[in-house]
Amino acid sequence: MTGSANFASRIATGFASFGLTSAQSTAFGVLNTALQAKYLLAVEPATRTPVTIEAKTIALKNMRTSAINLAKIIYSTATVDDSQLVELGLLPRSSRTPIPAPATAPVIDIVSAVGNTVRIRLHEAGESTKRGKPDGVDGAALYSFVGATPPDEESEWNFEGLTSKTVTSVTFPAAVTPGSQVWFTAFWFNNRKQNGPAATKVTTNLPGGAAMAA
After folding, report:
1. What is the pLDDT of residues 87-129, one digit of tens each?
2. Which residue among 59, 96, 141, 160 is least crowded, i.e. fewest CB within 10 A of its CB?
3. Alpha-carbon gap, residue 117 to 172, rounded angstroms
4. How do beta strands 202-205 and 181-189 pair?
5. Which segments of 1-138 are extended strands (E)?
6. Mapping DSSP to helix (H, G, I), strand (E, B) and coil, where does residue 214 land?
7. Residue 193: pLDDT band by 50, 70, 90 thresholds?
8. Are the C-beta atoms of residues 42 and 21 closer than 8 Å to each other?
9. Least confident piece of the model among 81-85, 202-206, 209-213
10. Are 59 and 84 in contact (CB under 8 A)?
């Protein structure tokens, strides 16, 4: 949910510099606020029910639809430079020759888990010693899930944002209890924002509670 929160925060006051209107910024802020609230209800054991999970899924879809529409406007605004795109969590523009969608999935390593923050590393698959992105890859989309069994449906995962870095951190809300099992998956993007296959799901436990980090 951090990706949505960051996007909402950045356009809240700087909407004009991204080619957006105040009304568009406010509307997305409303969707983000609803998503954050419904997410907390869906992950908190005391309130996690099929109803709250479905409400979170609907809120996530609404946020994504709005974010995609706003991103199209932002990308088409000539005055928006790559640094602003990265600030919003969007991939920078690229003037390189278009290349095919990534053919392989990233490999995810758990680096550390401290409090509610998990640090992960994304790297190329195979025996290569190169621990980074494959050629032609601009970045990765990262997803997380809290629970014992990761879902098969993408909509049930929590979108954590886009990253051009191979080492990044995910901080879960305070409502996620210590010892909770958390999962991660990701996929590479090329310079045309076409994605490749999803990474094999990896899991660990947040420190504390009955279960210790793997």
Report:
1. 999 988 765 556 788 999 999 999 999 999 999 999 988 755 4
2. 96
3. 6
4. antiparallel
5. 107-114, 117-123
6. coil
7. confident
8. no
9. 209-213
10. no
Domain ranges of the chain: 2-88, 107-205
Residue 204 binned pLDDT confidence (cut-offs 50, 70, 90): very high
Which DSSP string corresponds to 101-162? PPSSPPEEEEEEEETTEEEEEEE--SS-S--SPPTT--EEEEEEEESSS--SSGGGSEEEEE
Distance CA 75, CA 91 (A): 10
How far CA 98 is from CA of 85, 102, 105, 196, in Å, comes to: 19, 12, 19, 15
Distance CA 115, CA 129 (A): 30
Q: Is the dihedral of CA 69, 72, 78, 79 positive or negative?
A: positive
DSSP code, position 18: G
Q: Please answer whether residues 214 and 205 qualify as being in contact, where contact means their C-beta atoms are separated by less than 8 angstroms.
A: yes
Contact 142, 160 (CB under 8 A): yes
pTM for this prediction: 0.57
> What pLDDT shows up at residue 213?
38
User: Phi/psi at 94 (nearest 5 deg)?
Assistant: -135, 135
At CB < 8 A and 24+ separation, what contacts does 83-86 make? 84/17, 84/18, 86/164
Under DSSP, is residue 4 helix (H, G, I), strand (E, B) or coil? Answer: helix
